[in-house]
Amino acid sequence: MGLVLTLTSLAIVYITLNATFVAMVQMLVYAGAVMTLFLFVIMMIGVDKPEQSRKEIKGQTFLISGTLILLVSIIVYIGLENGLNWDLLFPESENVIEGTPSLLASSMFTSWVFPFEVISILLIVATTSALALAYEFKKSESND
Asked: Per residue in 30-40, pLDDT tens?
């Protein structure tokens, strides 16, 4: 769940930078497809056994959510009280390139094609390795 929250936050950062296409691709590809891939690999490994050492404190969910709400409220209050200048936090870039999909595609497949392919191969190798490890683990369990 933390990974989905991180990827969603990154998409929000892209939206604040007026890169809506990149934000939508971030949400669709990473938060959708990659999380589905990770869940598939976790299901193949079989990590569905409950943890024995996990202890819950009574009211821990209420305490954590209340603390987070209080911290966010304090930050918003301080920002509004001091007249927070959003232009200082998100300054305009001087060399803004229009974020059209055609410019993004031409940039990705001309100057960034090697890193793009390396990342795709890395994802395939990681998935194949996880499946191979899970298969050998289940095979050795059935022999015992």
From this structure: 777 777 777 77
